[in-house]
Write a structure and sequence with these properties.
Order of helices and strands: EEEEHEEEEEE
Strand content: 35-45%
Structural class: mainly beta
Number of strands: 10
Number of domains: 1
Shape: globular
Number of helices: 1
CATH topology: Pnp Oxidase, Chain A
Length: 207
Amino acid sequence: MANDASKIRFAPNGAIYIAPAPVQGQTGGTTLPVDLGTAGTDPAGYKALGYVDEGGVTLTPQIETQAINAWQSAVPILYNVQSASFSIKATLQETNQTTTELFWGASWEETSTGSGIYKLNLSSVPELKEISIVVDWQEGNIRSRCVVPRAMISDRGAIQLVRTENNKYELTMEAMDYGGQLGYVLTNDALTAPTGSGSSTLTKANS
């Protein structure tokens, strides 16, 4: 196959959205998006997290394997899946209720009615909240969307309070199991279109 520069993709624009994680077997909660929606429009039930720093969003799928060795071979004869994970990392730039509650892991409340002063309690036994995440990105008319039904914030960066930079909220979010899935990716990029049944390059070889 010849090299083709038209197959190189960028992600010059996009957005992150969150919602409460849906609960399997229950109705009336968050409905997961099953299409690409409309560019610049929040998926139903989700809230946009606003500007992300110039580092963009990092999506990291991982599969950890264990080598199976045998007496008759100097190299592994098989690999077995030990664990799988999918993480989303981004540094949020906007200060609002949603971004700060995600970062601090607690909710704001007014100290007294009409006081205009808001308090966020940092518990010594924090309550972990499940969220659903949608990440959109696009290049021209080519749009892609990653949907993670269930996730939790697994790591937070430090806030630097300095004169020359805005407050930033660095978050790492880890996907959790949802009916045997970590999530899914949608796109209208014709380059990914399957050419026929069983044509995937990742299809398991016949024994």
